[in-house]
Amino acid sequence: MNLNLLKRFSSFLNDKTPLKLRLIKRIGDNLFKLDIAGSIFYFDLSKGKSGIFVTEDLLLSPKSYNAPFDRSLEKYCVNAFITKAQVDGENRILQLFLETKHSYKTLEVILQAEFTGRNTNLILLNNEQVVLDALRHITLSQSFREVRINKKLLPLPQPVFAKKVMIEKEGDLFVDLKNLFVYRKQEVLEKRILKVSLYIQQKILHLQEILKSLGNKELLEQKAKEELEFGKVIIHNLYRFLDFRGKEIVLDGKLIVLPPKAHSLSQAAQIFFENSKKLYKKAQNIYIQENHLKEKINFYQNLLGMVQNVTNIHDLEILDSNFQKDIKKSKGDKAFESFFIEGFKISIGKSERENIVLLKEAKAEDLWLHIRDIPSSHCIIHSGKSKIPDIIIYKAAQILVGLLKSYGGSYEVDYTKRKFVKILEGAKVVYAKEQTLKAIKE
Question: What is the Cα–Cα distance from 300 to 302, expressed in whole angstroms?
C-alpha cells in the first residue's frame, strides 16, 4: 500500500467526518467490504499485496464468514460513526476512530488496518490500545508485538531513516484507488484463470478417454448375434453329442470354441445365451452412456469458455469453489456440479441424467431455475427456508446462461420453489408461480 495514497485516504475521511460506517463485511479470507456513507471501499489485508481499492465490479464471495472476529466487527463497527481517521506516522497503518451506541451507552473503539507488507492485520482496539479482537492473533513466540485479546497492543516502531511522506493531492483519489484494483486484477486474474482452465481441461480429457473406451454398438450387436446363434446350434444338435467333453466342436459347418467354464454342451449353450443378452444390453446402453458423456464434455467446454472470459476475480472464485471442493473430496464422479455464492450452494446438472437426480434430491423450499424455452441445465439454489437475496438468484442465473453453447445475448430465466415444479418424464417438467429475470451472456 502506497503511504502517500493511504494518507490521502485518511485526509479524505477527515474532511468529511463524522461519517457513518454503514457496513463492514468480510467477502474473502483477507478482503473486507466497507460502506462508508454510501461509498464502497475494499480493504485487502493479504500478506505482501495489501491495500485499499474501489471498483464498480460486483464482488461476491464463495462463502459467508461468521468467525468470532466477523461477529466482533458487526458488534463494534456496523452503523458506527467515524469521528477521526489518522495514519500512524510513516507506518502504513490506518486508524479509524469509531463511536457506536449500545444499550443506552456510547462505545468508542479504534479499527486499525495495518497494510505493512508481510505483517498485515485488522485489529479492534479500545481507547487504551487494548485488543478487543483481530483478524490475526499473534503470540510472543511469533513476534515481539503480540496481538491477543485483552492484551495491550504495542506501537509499531517508526521506520528508521524513513523520509517523511507529505500528502500529495494531485489526481483524483477515487481514480487512483480504482487503478489499484485494476492492477490487482491483472496481476492475479491471469494466473487463476490458467490454474482453473488446466483443471477443467483435465476433466474434459478424462471424459474423452472414457468416451473412446466405450465399445462399438454395431460390433457388440454383431457379437451378441453370433453368441445367440452358437447357443441355438448347440441346442439343436445337443441330442447327437450327449457325452461330449471337448473344447471345441463343428456343428452345421461352424467351428464353435466352447467357453472355458463350460463342462458340457448344454452348459456352453446356456453361457452363450447369457453372453448374448449381456452384449445386447451393453450395445443399447452405449448410446445412453455416449450421450451422457457428450453432454458432460459439452458442459465443461462451456464452463471453460466462461472461465477464460472472466473479468471479475470474484466471479472466478465462485466458479473455482466447485473445483476446490472436488479436489478435497476426490471420490470419483459427482452427481452434479455445485458452486458457492455467499455461502449458498448452487447446483447445476451437466446432463439429462444429472438433471433428473438434481430434481429428485432438491428440497421443496429450494429454488429451481431454468432458461425459458431452451433445452438446458436445471439449477437449484439450496436454501431450505432461508430467504435468498436477489443478487444470489441473479448470479446463479448468469452462471446458468453462461453455460449455454450459444452466442451472447439476453435470456429469460424462470425461477420458482422446487415444490411448484412437477416432473413429467425424464428431466421434462411443468412449473407454476414462477418469476422471470433477464440474464446476459457476454
Answer: 5
